[in-house]
Amino acid sequence: AKPGVNLLLHGTPGTGKSEFSRVLAQKLGCDLYEVSSQDEDGDPVDGGRRLMALRVLHAFCAGRRTLLVFDEIEDVFPKPHALFGSQGGRYKGWMNRMLEGNPAVTIWITNSVEALDPAFVRRFDVVLEVKAAPAAVRETQLRNLPVTLSEATIKTIAACTHLSPAVVNRAATVVSAIQSDLPVGRGPQIMELIVNQTLQAQGHGQIRGNQANASIYNAAYINSDFDPVALAEGIREAKSARLCLYGPPGTGKTAYGQWLAGQLGRPITVKRSSDLLNHYVGMTEKAIAKAFHEAAEEGAVLLMDEVDSFLQERGKAQRSWEVTQVNEFLTQLEQFEGVFIATTNLMEGLDAAALRRFDLKAKFGYLKPEQARGLLEAHLSAIGVPAGSAPEVRQIEALMNLTPGDFAAVARQNRFRPLGSAVAWVAALEAECRQKAGSTRRIVGFGSLEEASA
Question: Does pLDDT of 44 surpass 90?
Answer without folding.
Answer: no
